[in-house]
Amino acid sequence: MKRLCGRIAVVTASTDGIGFAIAQRLAQEGAKVIISSRKEKNVNKAVDKLCKEGLDVKGLVCHVSNATDREKLFDQAHKLGGLDILVSNAAVNPEVGDVLDCSESSWDKIFDVNVKSSFLLAKEAVPLLKQSKSGRLIFISSIAGFQPFNLLGAYSVSKTALLGLTKAAALQLAPDGITVNCVAPGIIQTKFSDALTSSESARTEALSRIPLNRLGDTNDVSGVVAFLASNDGAYVTGENIVVAGGMASRL
Fold first, then answer.
1. Does residue 235 carry a catalytic annotation?
2. How do strand 240-243 and strand 57-61 relate by DSSP bridges?
3. Averaged in consecutive runs of 10 residues, what is the pLDDT profile of the chain (251 residues)?
4. Looking at residue 153, what is its pLDDT?
5. Are residues 45 and 112 in contact, defined by beta-carbon separation less than 8 angstroms?
6. Rg (Cα) of the chain, in Å, rounded?
7. Predicted pLDDT of residue 236
8. At CA 22, angle to CA 192 and CA 79, rounded to 5?
9. Which residue among 59, 107, 119, 198 is least crowded, i.e. fewest CB within 10 A of its CB?
10. Measured between alpha carbons, how far is 210 from 176 in angstroms, rounded to an integer?
11. CATH topology of domain 8-190+219-243
């Protein structure tokens, strides 16, 4: 499908895993996509791969906690003609363990990247999104935001915060015709989920929670994001959509 022809998208943390799959899918559907990550070599590798697929992609180094880097992202979008879609995907988890065992430094880093940066990206994107006839703001949360994982205590809480940010921002931006939604992936096969799937016992435990009895694929997530970014998702806003194979997702 080519539902996104003529649209411009920014996807953060998009050189690997879920972010890369989202950028790839949006570009496959016709969007011009700006990808980013913290390391230049990763940006160059991802851009090269997607360009070889004939996709319209540009890349920038961006640490989402850096105001100058965020400004460069939106400047690039402006040069391309504006901004129609922002997918805020960047997240970190520097410490594994229960929530109340988290160190203060790790807590601060998790909330700085996972929550504060998502808020600032959205805030800074609004002027450009208001100029679009189809403004889309999409946060990437996690099933852990609904059902906290013991190994991902502080991370889980940060992802719960995004659910609330989605609801509040959707109400504020609805009069401007901008939809705001959140996608909460389950256990997706990526490097980020290795702690939950690397050992046989951990994988068995993970699968026991998933009614569909399989781990997710990055394309399971990217297809939902593409739907929300397209005209097919034009009447959906303020929603937190779980993509987790049937895992429990009740706050």
1. no
2. unpaired
3. 95 98 98 98 98 98 98 97 98 95 98 98 98 97 94 96 98 98 96 80 90 96 98 98 96 83
4. 96
5. no
6. 17
7. 98
8. 120
9. 198
10. 38
11. Rossmann fold (3.40.50)
H helix or E strand, kind and range, residue 112: none
Q: How many helices (H) and strands (E) does the chain have?
A: 9, 7
Instruction: Supply angle C-alpha 127, 130, 136, rounded to 5.
Output: 105
Query: Rounded to an integer, what distance in angstroms lies between the CA atom of residue 249 and that of residue 251?
Result: 7
The Cα 87–Cα 248 span in angstroms is 25
Q: Determine the Cα–Cα distance for residues 136 and 134; give it in Å rounded to an integer.
A: 6
- Distances in Å between the Cα of 24 and the Cα atoms of 53, 72, 221, 249 are 9, 21, 12, 27
Which amino acid, residue 235? Answer: Y
136, amino acid identity = R
The encoded tokens of residue 65 equal: 């906690």
Residue found by looking up tokens 């460069």 in the block: 72
Task: Return the pLDDT at 185.
Answer: 98
Of 20, 146, 149, 155, the catalytic one is 155
Cα(173)–Cα(86) distance, integer angstroms: 14
What gap in Å lies between CA 216 and CA 86, rounded to an integer? 23
How many residues does this entry show for the chain? 251
Task: Name the one residue in this structure whose structure tokens are 């009614």.
Answer: 211
